[in-house]
Amino acid sequence: MAGYDDRDGFIWMDGKLVDWRGANVHILTHALHYASAVFEGERCYNGKIFKSTEHSERLRMSGELLDMSLPFTVEEINAAKEAVLKANNLTDAYVRAIAWRGAGEDMGVASKRNPIRLAVACWTWGSYYGDAKFKGAKLDIAKWKRPSPETIPHAAKAAGLYMICTMSKHAAEAKGCSDAMMFDYRGYVAEATGANIFFVKDGEVHTPIPDAILNGITRQTVIGMLRDMQIKVHERRIEASDLEGFEQCFLTGTAAEVTPVGQIGDYNFEVGDLTKRVSMEYEKLVRA
Questions:
Q1: First to last CA, the chain
Q2: What are the backbone angles phi and psi of residue 146, rounded to the nearest 5°?
Q3: Which one of 103, 254, 269, 270 is least enclosed by Cβ atoms within 10 Å?
């Protein structure tokens, strides 16, 4: 497959559709130097973006948390996503909306005079973890920890917050793993590099409190599903010593959807009935 910069199609940028290969920014774009960017990952199923408005609302909220008021409304962002899907003739796709501080009069840490820009791209993207979606992903344990909310805007889906995720996933892949599980600054289980994490024990589900991690839209959706299924969900602090007692594990995220985990470090988990049921019900929900 061609690189992401060399494809046919169209990308929406700042209010208009442009040729895919021409969707470029200047080398002195502020976001490239200072990570002043926020983004969303979404999936379109059968021509409908799952929870499109919720994602657009979060994109704007993330911008506000980075002192970047986006110059587009939720309705305009939703319309941009629909336009780019139509232009690329896609009904099942991954959709990436990104807002960033562009090149302008400022080229230091401060950038108030630089324009805030927005782009939306989409492409076909299969299972994020490949066949792990069926047999269970293998996770490394990252050496990097999710920082304290006193040091980062953890509720923002911001580009800069993924730096340690990239390094952790590279280290995991070098060991033959699909991903890595991260602890937070206190030593509690936090999440994978781009997905929230859930555990199963005695028919009940346990997941970290999102007080130092992104409270994912898929995470919230799955918790709602579990409660509708009359399955008890414990949002709590999970310590490393708890991992040995869990029977099942799964990840959630727009890209990951619901992916079972078979191993984290030296801990093994079964791809059990509850995990399979959650995955199946999620598939039904997003395609309803």
A1: 31
A2: -65, 130
A3: 270
Decide if pLDDT at 280 tops 70.
yes
Query: H helices within the chain, ranges in order?
Result: 30-34, 52-65, 74-87, 132-135, 163-174, 217-228, 273-286
C-alpha to C-alpha distance for 198 and 48, rounded to whole angstroms: 27
Q: How far is CA 236 from CA 126, 166, 190, 208, 242, in A?
A: 32, 26, 11, 5, 11
| Alpha-carbon span 261 to 253, nearest angstrom | 14
Q: How is the chain split among helix, strand and coil, in percent rounded to 5?
A: 30, 30, 40
CA 169 to chain centre: 14
- Percent of the chain at pLDDT exceeding 90: 96
Is CATH 3.40.430.10 correct for 10-123?
A: no
Half-sphere exposure of 240 (CA within 13 A, CB side): 10
Q: So what's the pLDDT on residue 1? A: 67
**8 Å CB contact between 194 and 255:** yes
- Give the start-to-end residue ranges of the domains of the chain: 10-123, 132-286
Closest CA to 99 of 59, 132, 126: 59
C-alpha to C-alpha distance for 41 and 39, rounded to whole angstroms: 7
For 132-286, CATH gives: 3.20.10.10
- pTM for this prediction: 0.96
